[in-house]
Each structure stands twice: as structure tokens, then as C-alpha cells.
Write a structure and sequence with these properties.
527 residues, alpha/beta, 6-stranded antiparallel beta sheet, binds alpha-D-glucopyranose
């Protein structure tokens, strides 16, 4: 039987910003449960929850102080169990975030580790003696040195991210076991999969060699973290070995899947797809986030993926997440719509960041309102992630129907028009395009599990491909330009969907005489 994850559309929820059920201005698990009917109606087949674990929230939950519980801000473990049960009842699978690289500085493991040099947990983190200067030149992603001098024992510990996020020592087998048991804890509670955070940071050079300088660094333009190439503190080969061990843990359970956070070009992603047998893991493919707007670039990228993967692999495409500017802001609404059309008609697992389905945009945040620690550490360079994390826009009501209290981040100014309720009533809304295509992914065999192949056209503004399964052949044609484009392909078929929303009635089109409007996309079933 076809595995659910081979074509699952996954909806990413940032719990703080999805729906606030208890009126404190912060979203919660019960709020997510309440909104499951919306996710079902949208047509997503799985949700991924960004962290909800107990945390001082210095990095908004990516600083965990107990892996096996729920932060009171988000509810209780009973709320979590209720959410999983309700999701499963609606045939929605649940992925959760797994954060192996670092804990919070308030995690009991770190409190013990830092307490003395001979504490049994000392070696659970990465410690170096104080010899008068920082142990080497390794940097923190969020700014400055990655080393922090801890006064308790006068030694340095390493943190790839904030100093309040000390890195675990994955060369210690006790850490490996404890963290594998975290996977089992949640698998036993019924989760269907994990999104592995910051996986490429897990292993560090055992000799702690200095990282080389980046010869292409451009001061003032590039992130100061990019002054070095992170040869010895990032992307070590041991990562894949441990990933395989994670797969073995998941293999103890039925029908589970993992995705891991890797930003890399296709050749570096392929080994991550192939590491587990059976293929229960895919790395995120983030490449569409930064792809130049060019039909040929997109086509070549998808071909590279398809040529390197088999039907047993699960490709995936990410257009946005809680760390990146929203797709509608990066590209503008028309291009974002066309890109969603592409994403939802490709093979594999599309990831949909909450709110992108209604075309939510980045919300400008005044410096005094900044919440994100990255913005606070490296201000004014545009690294802050708050603009893409603002509350979901449910309706035209006060606070966009997200909460009865003032939300933790401001609401977009355009929420009165751009919200779920308004778009539900508008046949040509972005939301309607998502719903139509997500439904088609379930109903049409070729979209559900069909093979992909590109269609050659001489017109470089167009990207066309087909999906084929059994007797069904679908053609997808996308116009990447801001001009009308004649299509000139052979075939007559039924229009299933367009970027304008579902056609009012069933229409037939001759692909030879079809003319696409600027940024228009068509999905046609050949007769
Ligand atoms: C990942 C998360 C990001 C977080 C970082 C540190 O990149 O997606 O939000 O800040 O890891 O945990």
C-alpha cells in the first residue's frame, strides 16, 4: 500500500501564532485542536508543530528545558494527547520538532554539567579550559563568538546559536541514548514523525581546529556569521551516521517519517535522502526559497531532483518557514500564487507555512517591538524573523480573530481583507487555489502518485511538465513572465485548476491555442 508520507501535504504551525484559545495573546495547543477542521478543509494531510516544550522562550521554544513535556504557555501534555487524537480522528498526521543540537541553559542536564568539572554530566556538553582566550574562532549563528566563559568552573562552553542554547556533545554515547529516548517518548504518544532542527550543527571537529576565513565575504552586506567557512563546526560526515541511527529508532514504530533542516544545494541533499532504508527520511529542500525567478532555473532544479531520486524517495519543496521572509513578500502576490501552483502539482511532500495559503505577508516590526533574539543581537540588518511569525489572520474581527487579547506580535495592517473568512467566500482567492489543488492531489491518481517529466517548449517564459499514472495524464503549464504567452502544445483536455481559482464550470481547452495571462498556471487532464 502507498505510504501516507509519499505525497502528504504538510502544514507548518508556529504554535505561538496560530490560534489563542485562552485569551493571553499567545497561541496554544487547544487553539490548534480547535482549528483542525480548518486544516482538514484546506486539505492538508499532516501538521508540523514548531516547539511547544517547556522553555524560557529566549529562542521561542528552540531552547528546550524539558524534552518530554509541554510549556504551560501552550497547555498541558493532556492537551497534546487530545490534539494528536483529534488530528488522527480527522486523518491528519502529526510531526513535531526535535531539537538535538542544543538544550536551554536551564535544562537540568546543563545545570548539572556546568556545576563542576567532575559532574557525571560534564561531558554531555562541549567544554574547554580557559587558557586566557577563546578556544578557537568558531562563531555563533546569532552573532559573536560561539564560546561563552562560564564563571562557575571558569571554562568555556560552545553554543552554535544563543549562549542560552549550549550545544550537546553528540560524541558522548549517553547523550545519544538520552536523545533517542526522547524520540521514543513522543512516538509512544502517537506522533507520526519529526522535523529535526539544525541537524548539520550536531557534530564538531574533535581537534577543534579554527575555521578558515570566507574569501567571498562582503562586509556590511553579508551576515557577519559568513566571515568564516564553517568547515570544522558544521556539516561533518558523522551527522549522516547519527541520522541513520534515528531512522533505526523510527523503524521500531510503524509508518513514521522524518524531515531534517538542511539548507544545501541538490548534490549535498541527495545522500540525506538515501541514508535510510526503507526511505523514511528526507532533508528539507529549501532551494526554491532563494531561486532566481526564471522558468528555466526552476525546471532544471526540479529535473535535477527527479533524476537523482526514485519513486521510493519523497522529494519535498519548501516555500517558507518561521525563519525566512514570507513568500508573498519575497516575490509579490502573483508570483507567490504561481509558485504555490508549482509546489502543489509536483511529486512528494509540499510544506505549507501557516498563513501562506491566504497570502500573508511579512509585517514590519518596530525595533522597540522586536522579539527575535537574532534581531536583538545583530540589529538593523534585516535578520529578524518576527515579520514572518505574526498571528494568523482568521477574520476581520479585532486582532484578526486570533485572540481576544493584544497578541504577542502585531497583526498585519491588511488583515481586514486578507483573512481566512474573507478568502473562503471568494472563489478566486489564494486560499481557493490551495484548496482546489490539495483536493486534486487526493483525487487524481496522476497528481497523487504519478511520475514527473518535463515538457520541452521553445518559450523560456513557460515551464511545462506532465504527471502520469495509470490511464491518467496531467499537464501543468506555468507562465513565469509578466506578459501573455501562447502555449502551442499538443493536446486537448479538461481544465482542472488555474491560478485564478477553480473554473466555474468544467471547461475544455486546446493546448495549442491556449494563451496564458501573466503569471498564470493551468492544470489540465488530457482527454
Ligand atoms: C533552527 C530553527 C530556528 C532556531 C534555530 C536554533 O534553524 O528553525 O528557528 O532559531 O534552529 O534552534
Amino acid at each position: 500500500m502507498e505510504k501516507w508520507y509519499r505525497n502528504a501535504a504538510v502544514y507548518q504551525i508556529y504554535p505561538r501564532s496560530f490560534y489563542d484559545s485562552n485569551g493571553d495573546g499567545i497561541g496554544d495547543l487547544a487553539g490548534i485542536t480547535e482549528k483542525l477542521p480548518y486544516i482538514k478543509d484546506l486539505g492538508a494531510s499532516a501538521i508540523w508543530l514548531s516547539p511547544f516544550y517547556p522553555s524560557p522562550m529566549i529562542d521561542f521554544g528552540y531552547d528546550v528545558c524539558n524534552y518530554n513535556d509541554v510549556d504551560p504557555i501552550f497547555g498541558t501534555i493532556a492537551d497534546f494527547d487530545g490534539l494528536v487524537a483529534a488530528a488522527h480522528e480527522s486523518d491528519i498526521r502529526v510531526f513535531i520538532d526535535y531539537i538535538p543540537n542544543h538544550t536551554s541553559h536551564l535544562h537540568p542536564w546543563f545545570i548539572e554539567s556546568r556545576s563542576s568539572k567532575n559532574n557525571p554530566k560534564r561531558d554531555w556538553y562541549i567544554w574547554k579550559e580557559n587558557e586566557g582566550e577563546v578556544p578557537n574562532n568558531w562563531l555563533s549563528v546569532f552573532g559573536g563568538s560561539g564560546w561563552e566563559l562560564d564563571p562557575i568552573t571558569d571554562c568555556y562552553y560552545f553554543h552554535s546559536f544563543l549562549k542560552e542554547q549550549p550545544d550537546l556533545n553528540w560524541r558522548n554515547p549517553q547523550v545519544q541514548n538520552a536523545m533517542k529516548n526522547v524520540l521514543r517518548f513522543w512516538l509512544d504518544r502517537g506522533v507520526d514523525g519529526f522535523r529535526i532542527d539544525a541537524i548539520y550543527f550536531m557534530y564538531k571537529d574533535p581537534e577543534f581546529r579554527d575555521n578558515p576565513l570566507n574569501p567571498n565575504y562582503q562586509p556590511g552586506i553579508m551576515d557577519p556569521y559568513q566571515t568564516h567557512l564553517h568547515t570544522y563546526s558544521f556539516g561533518l560526515p558523522e551527522t549522516l551516521d547519527m541520522l541513520k541511527e534515528f531512522c533505526d529508532v523510527l523503524g521500531e514504530y510503524k509508518d513514521t517519517f522524518m524531515v531534517s533542516e538542511v539548507y544545501a544545494p541538490v548534490p549535498d541533499l541527495i545522500p540525506f535522502f538515501k541514508i535510510c532504508s526503507p526511505r523514511i527520511h528526507s532533508p528539507f529542500n529549501m532551494n526554491l526559497i532563494s531561486m532566481p525567478w526564471d522558468a528555466v532555473c526552476y525546471r532544471e532544479h526540479i529535473e535535477e531532483i527527479e533524476e537523482n531520486l526514485t519513486m521510493e524517495d519523497t522529494p519535498n519543496y519548501v516555500l517558507g518557514n518561521h525563519d525566512r521572509s514570507r513568500v508573498a513578500t519575497r516575490l509579490g502576490p502573483s508570483r507567490a500564487r504561481l509558485l504555490a501552483f508549482l509546489q502543489l502539482t509536483l511529486r512528494g511532500m509540499p510544506f505549507i507555512y501557516y498563513g501562506d495559503e491566504i497570502g500573508m505577508e511579512d509585517v514590519p516590526i518596530k525595533s522597540e517591538d522586536a522579539q527575535d533574539p537574532w534581531e536583538k543581537n545583530v540589529p538593523g540588518m534585516g535578520f529578524g524573523r518576527d515579520p514572518a511569525r505574526t498571528p494568523m489572520q482568521w477574520s476581520a474581527k479585532k486582532f484578526a480573530g486570533f485572540s481576544s487579547a493584544k497578541p504577542w506580535l502585531p497583526i498585519a495592517e491588511n488583515y481586514v481583507e486578507r483573512n481566512v473568512e474573507a478568502e473562503s467566500k471568494d472563489a478566486s482567492s489564494m486560499l481557493n487555489v490551495y484548496k482546489t489543488l490539495l483536493k486534486a492531489r487526493k483525487d487524481l491518481p496522476a497528481l497523487h502518485h504519478g511520475a514527473y517529466s518535463s515538457i520541452t517548449t521553445d518559450n523560456h517564459a513557460l515551464y511545462a511538465f506532465e504527471r502520469v499514472a495509470e490511464e491518467e495524464k496531467l499537464i501543468i503549464i506555468l507562465n513565469f513572465s509578466d506578459q501573455e504567452q501562447p502555449v502551442h502544445l499538443l493536446g486537448i483536455g479538461e481544465v482542472i485548476a488555474t491560478t485564478d481559482g477553480r473554473p466555474a464550470e468544467t471547461t475544455t481547452t486546446d493546448l495549442n491555442s491556449l494563451v496564458l495571462q501573466p503569471f498564470e498556471g493551468y492544470l489540465v487532464r488530457l482527454s
